[in-house]
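$ fold --in a.seq
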Amino acid sequence: MTGSFTACLSYPFSRSRLDPDPRYAQLRRTEPVCRVQLPYGPPAWLVTSYHLTRSVFGDTRFSRAATVGRDNPRECPVEFGQVAESVLCMDPPAHTRIRQLAGRAFTARRVEQLRPRARQIAAALIDGMVAAGPPADLAEHFSFAFPAIVICELLGIPDAERHAFRRWTDAIVSTTASTPGQVQETYLQLAGYLAGLFAQRRAAPGDDLLTWLVQARDDADRLTETELLFLAMALLVGGYETTARQITNMAYVLLTHGPQLCQLQARPELLPGAVEEMLRFIVFGSAVNPRIATADVTVGRVVVRAGEPVLCSHSSANRDEQVFPRAAELDFARRPNPHLAFGYGPHYCLGAPLARMELQVALGTILDRLPGLRMAVPEDQLAWHTGSMMRGLAAFPVAW
């Protein structure tokens, strides 16, 4: 079977809260590499099974760098950050150089050193909610504030300025509100803001990650100025938006799965495993970040021709029954749990240790400090994000 299909499925598939579209399961069984057409760009191959997804992520013949300067399959009219200097659009060895440099800030040991401070931040936010009394919007008052404060402190950004970059990150993950002019304006604002921070660190170095990256640029010449800019953008956006939405998503999953919530309340030691299982279980988004085949490559029964784009669905791979028995069930004791929520291969999420720690601290604090947590409105009245690449609740009113 070769990459010559003419029929394409319209993609992304339907979105219902945090649940997978039934077509993913059907495709895994019958056609795990299929042709799809996104709203913009050329057709692409969509990979839905676990083992084939890992094979694509780990195969250097599928290139992120090759997406630069071409029309790519996508959900929104304009692409963000498709430039050669972005770490998200690099292949080894350039990607390896920058990843090793930035990765030193996100080792498991360094992240564990941040855990006590993260607990203080989470507790202070919950204190504010308790003082104001129920009901409260968990998304607004906790989920978005918590990772924002953590990444601000890590990068050395004043907490008072975190509301500004929330507007920029919302624009970046939007699929509907980004005209070419708005894209350019968002980038100019964010780039100008970060350039100002770089200038501040050069004039008055601090004990933070931005200072360290600026010094790596200036003293050791390990980054170009443009690489520094796009790395800072990736850390700021990636260290905030995804974690913020997943905190709310996981709280919603717990409140809609009573037996698992009771299990976790009775056995708090299950929390790390519960976070991993919810990362596997939650359908957070559709397949994004295409890779371009640089040679003819056989993927399953399909020959992907050189130059063709390939998309892999993390969420579908995480529901693959061949790897995860009872994949549709939420099982906090699941072992092993080799989910792909953070990707695989060279582009495995750089901030995965930080995200795991933040999710554990956030959920642990919520469960400990808000006894009797419950939804403050009927479930069918909850408002879900539309026009975004990431699924989640626009607001989550809770009481306790």
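$ fold --in b.seq
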Amino acid sequence: MTANLHVSSHPLVKHKLTLLRDTATDHRKFRELVRELALLLGYEATQDLNLEPAVVNTPMGEATGSLTTEIIGVVPILRAGLGLVDGIQELLPAVQVWHIGLYRDEETLRPVEYYNKLPDAPTVQLCLVLDPMLATGGSGIATINILKRWGAKRIKFLGILAAPEGVQALSDAHPDVPIHVAELDERLNEIGFIVPGLGDAGDRMFGT
């Protein structure tokens, strides 16, 4: 599998993912778990942020530390990507949030863009594309295409589950984009869903 793929080995990620998959997990708990997984995966995906030295005053004197100077934008792919935003914002309160709307044509399995709310020009140094499921890779590829045309230079994909087919497709299309997920599953089935997966993430998240 591609070197771009980063699968979390954190015990809490494994624990929460197991609960997330369970059909007995209701919509409220599902949303909570998605938020918690986003926070944990966001922590792992931002380990290479640039730092600059900084001096602050503590109650006991001066301390030399580091502060990140990078401005980060998160781009949830509507609608399921919205579930990951709260966890990322909890970790990174100052992020900018933009929205790109795509839906998957159920016959062709290809993404169709219906909404794009990006500013006129890039205002960040790092874009995190959020989508719980990297299945065929079509939505992720289409979103990153949009971001690159817009002028984004540094992009990462953050999701919960990935299929080998989606990872390969995204890596082939955008070899410079790291992929951070909780787990790499077995395959796609004949209707383009990840197996064993967790079903339709959007439906389970929003109770539809």
